[in-house]
Specification:
By secondary structure, this protein is α/β, with parallel strands linked by helices. It is built from 16 helices and 10 strands. The protein folds into 5 domains: about 5-85, DNA Methylphosphotriester Repair Domain, CATH 3.40.10; about 90-140; about 150-200, no CATH class; about 205-280, Methylated DNA-protein cysteine methyltransferase domain (Double Stranded RNA Binding Domain), CATH 3.30.160.70; about 290-375, Arc Repressor Mutant, subunit A, CATH 1.10.10.
């Protein structure tokens, strides 16, 4: 449904009394309501000083929440978000502003090397309680302010080490107060000690194989700790070079026989064949805590079904973090096993798959066909169309 049509279906047409209040620029006494201008998508108070719209372009809504749900935005002249009866909308606007302002402040301090403000100082600057600041951060970004800083630190450390910087210098440039703190964080973020990451994975053994899948092949790689990469493509040499580029000093060895079980599992998943053992598979992947939660949620989406980015965000306890879910899907290192292809837009259309939308469609079609053949009709089957 396009925006104009959605706005036109919101609320009700104005009564004679309501239209008189709008035309006379005076509020209706006793009953709080707003007017929604369908041609501009703006929600106003009855006494708004802006030019009066035509009656046929006005809908009456009971609250700003209802107007926002229809796709409208608050008027910048009469500010309906400040009116009585719209406290929920005010809180929502303030929360979003608080997160944006706090991220800007943290980023500025982080990039300049200044001392990072604590949650109490950040909350005071945002004008909301400290506990509320942490809540809205989790809702929108999936992490607390402290978690956001930890992720930025780990990203900078990873960049410095990959560029060949000495470990001690990289640790302090990334903002770690001590080497012990960095080594502890690196276990989760890098998957190995900083010194080993800096040397391109020296001392790591990564075994890999290639297995056929529809319209191409999959490279499957693992360390002794578990599956670490599944890359989709057409030429094994290209996929192998990508694997070696990430850890240029690791021992990367092809092992078709030793990797045959993992290869069979990935091959089965790529054609929609159920593999119950996938849920217990050991993984050796490196990511923030939020991305790990997202990937785990994706593994619980049944084959043949899809979920929207918003639904996944809600499932991991961060209902406002749909964009962060999208970023987690984009960073997924083990395609098919962590089925980010099962995440679609709220209208069912396909968006943003690392291996192309045609591949995403192929994987979903294969899973749905397998589910139907097994007599298990998908519970959340959406009409999936490729968006441009």
């Amino acid at each position: 449904m396009n925006e104009r049509k959605r706005l036109g279906q919101a609320g009700t047409a104005p009564t004679d009394e309501q239209w008189a209040a709008i035309a006379g620029r005076r509020p209706e006494p006793g009953t709080p309501w707003l007017l929604l201008v369908t041609s501009t998508g703006i929600a106003c108070l009855p006494g708004c000083p802006a030019r009066t719209p035509g009656r046929d372009r006005v809908r009456i809504v009971a609250s700003l929440d209802e107007a926002l749900a229809a796709g409208a935005r608050p008027c910048l002249r009469c500010h309906p978000e400040r009116a009585a009866g719209t406290r929920d909308a005010i809180v929502a606007v303030e929360a979003g502003d608080a997160v944006e302002a706090t991220v800007r402040r943290l980023a500025a301090a982080f990039d300049s090397g200044d001392e990072l403000p604590g949650d109490r100082e950040l909350a005071a600057a945002a004008g909301i309680p400290e506990r509320r600041l942490r809540e809205v951060f989790r809702e929108r970004l999936g992490v607390t302010p402290r978690g956001w800083v930890a992720a930025r630190r780990a990203e900078r450390l990873r960049s410095h080490l990959a560029g060949g910087r000495d470990v001690l210098g990289a640790l302090f440039d990334a903002g770690y107060g001590s080497s012990s703190a960095a080594y502890e964080a690196a276990g989760a973020e890098l998957g190995m000690a900083p010194g080993r990451y800096r040397t391109g994975g020296a001392g790591e053994l990564i075994r890999w194989t290639a297995t056929p899948i529809p319209d191409g092949l999959a490279l499957v790689a693992a360390t002794d700790r578990g599956l670490c990469a599944v890359r989709l493509g057409e030429k094994p040499a290209v996929l192998e070079s990508e694997l070696r580029a990430e850890f240029p000093r690791a021992t990367v060895a092809r092992d078709d026989a030793g990797m045959s079980d993992l290869a069979a599992l990935v091959s089965d998943l790529a054609v929609g064949r159920p593999r119950p053992d996938v849920s217990g598979l050991s993984l050796d992947v490196h990511a923030t805590a939020f991305r790990r939660r997202v990937w785990e949620a994706l593994r619980h989406i049944p084959a043949g079904e899809t979920r929207s980015y918003g639904q996944v965000a809600a499932a991991v306890g961060a209902p406002k973090a749909a964009r962060a879910v999208g970023a987690a899907c984009a960073a997924n290192p083990i395609a098919v096993v962590v089925p980010c292809h099962r995440v679609v837009a709220s209208d069912g259309s396909l968006h943003g798959y690392a291996y192309g939308l045609a591949r995403k469609r192929q994987l979903l079609d294969a899973e749905r066909a397998a589910a139907e053949a097994a007599g298990t009709e998908p519970l959340a089957r959406a009409e999936v169309t490729v968006s441009s």
